[in-house]
Amino acid sequence: MLKLPIAKLDEFFAAIAAKETLYLPVDNEGGQAQYKEWKEGVSLSRALNTVRSAKDFFFPQTENLMEFKTQGKAIEVIDSRKESEDFVIFGVRACDARSFTILDKVFLVDPVDTYYKTRREHGTIISLACTRPEETCFCPLFGIDATEPEGDMRGWMTEDALYLEPVTEKGTALAQALGDLLEDADAAPVEEQKENTKKILEKLPFSKLDMEEFNGDNLLKLFDSPKWAGLSEACLGCGTCTFVCPTCQCYDIRDFNTGHGIQRFRCWDSCMYSDFTRMAHGNPRLTQLERFRQRFMHKLVYFPSNNDGEYGCVGCGRCLSKCPISMNIVKVIKTLGEDK
Amino acid sequence: MQREMIERAKALLADGTVNRVIGWKAGEFDYDITPAVFTTAEELDAGFLYNDLCAANLSKYLIKESRKEGKILAFLKPCDTYSFSQLLKEHRIWRDHVYVIGVPCEGKVDVDTVKSKGITGICSMRCDGETVRVETLYGEESIKKDEAMADRCLNCKSKKHVVYDELMGEEGDVLDSHRFDMVEKLENMTPDERFAFWRGELSRCIRCNACRNVCPACTCEKCVFDNDASGIAQKAAVDSFEENMFHIIRAFHVAGRCTDCGECSRVCPQNIPLHLLNRKFIKDIDELYGEYQAGADPDTKPPLNTFTQEDAEPSVIYERGGNK
Amino acid sequence: MQVNNSEFKPKIVAFCCNWCSYAGADLAGTNRLNYPADVKIIRVPCSCRVNPMFILRAFQRGADGVILCGCHPGDCHYTTGNYYTRRRMTLLFSMLDYLGIEKERTRVEWVSAAEGAKFAATMNDFVETVTKLGENKRLEDLRCKEK
């Protein structure tokens, strides 16, 4: 266990930023946290989590894939990729840290998404244990320990110190590079913090939901449930839940005519949108009911069926606090779970 | 009030006046309330809710609901009746398929505002007169109600119901509000300051389209932003131009029709004060073409669908307002 | 924003209504009145045809200034089109100003078919104004800039 006195936090950030770009949660104009690049004078947000998840770093909302230029009958294809540089993300919570393993299962299986892979290789994650979970948190439901987050290096922030523990090679390398700044320390304060946090985690209202119903064997039964109508009736068809979700990974590929060429880019897509997977005949999911059902069936049934039972949700609670009509995955689990 | 509303709804269901009721449904906590349609007395008993946390404007749902078989009972707050009336004017709601009961509103508590005061882990929330009592994972807290309300309620424009078949509680009045104060403050800034302000706000946009989809004035069958050929992809926040374009056009398309219900700002996951764009149009319309409140009067012409020969020239904006 | 770049030649898009302003531009041409070649005219059936999105997209595509010309109020070929234009554009320009975008980059001018001289003078004046402002930065789309 390594230790950094809280007074040296800025020094610590500066030391990392001197080597590679450092991102951390910062309070924004909207009074909420968002990841921003660390620069002198930027201070770490005290909020539990950011509105946008950390998936942006590996799977950004929009990204240019390539460009086309035409000259006569010749088409020139230009790779828009820039040389990737190493970067560090500080302050990733346990839920977001787990989301990367879920995204890996999508992007790093054959065919490997090289855009994603490159960024994964260049990124070092310093996660931070939670101490004040929100009522909307339910990560324990998915076997995530908020007091012991995954990541290349994990951290615990107490009132007077930041405790760090390298987990992977990348994490160890980073710790070594920081040298004298970090000192060896006794893990007792960390254990104490974990105990306290666990008491709160115990009290979380949704951390023990019954998930038995949600497996591939029940696929058709769940798909045909008459309850989807009631659940989806107020859905606005916006993309809030999808865009704040750390595990939603659908994207669209589009071409933009720049006037001097064509830019091909990909951008996040939402199954809640009316033009999601639109084909010549229109959207195969005709009404909001089917679109709504798709999102939750994917996370709770299809994804675990294809990935050894791992759900496509990490219980971060963003959709619970952000849905304009307060309809969310917990309400879906509760409502459909009753039908055992 | 809630009890009375449920009883009245049951009676109207029982005598066949209506076959459905649209209202608010309780969630897991006191604040996560979902708009819902109820069809039986049992459903009403089980989940129907009306209190100081029921913020959603139900009028937009009536576009679809009114096209269904039979009549639907809708409980509308003063704000919602303005939207409802505006939708009637635009022939978007079938009036004879809706039975409107106006219900009073004392201003809605906004959970994001409460959270912004540093209260976290909110498990339950109750209004006790002018105090909001909050139970959290970390103990009990309380906050004054006017510190727990969003701007739209603090600067409420009217407690009057402009359309209804029946009214519960007492009828309120149109209020003198300070709703244009912030617009004025922005107008008095220099263009550079304004530009910096809006960049700071709009750059957070994630293009989730919640503001558009919740807006009772945005009712096009197909939105211009869903058109691939519009030169702006609905799902990509590619650069600052698209953010500006989306928000200018979104606000422009509802100019003269926006009732200032504030739903856009309520639903924005990034807390962008979108109502300030709409209010700018309202303020300009008031100043240039005479006071106009969308939804207030079914017979007046919307300001952008009419004109006078004496209208100001566009050059008027070079001369007016703030620092040049 | 003052730019001391004498090289800078702004790109101007001028939407001209078919009945008055476009004919006015024609007259300016036949009378050999000078106005900068950087003014690109787009003919529209009526000034009222111009959707606010047209204006924004002109900026997106690289315009530094956008001017909209129509018949004088009262003279619209379709009787009332330009009255609606007048209200719409007033509100749009005011909104652009509200967002901190230089209001001088947008303008509405009424030019009749007989006003070739006014057309040329208007364009000269507008080009001069926009040249002083410099390149459009606040409503630009970086993807559309030629690298």
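qc> Helices of chain C lie at 21-30, 52-60, 81-98, 116-133.
qc> done
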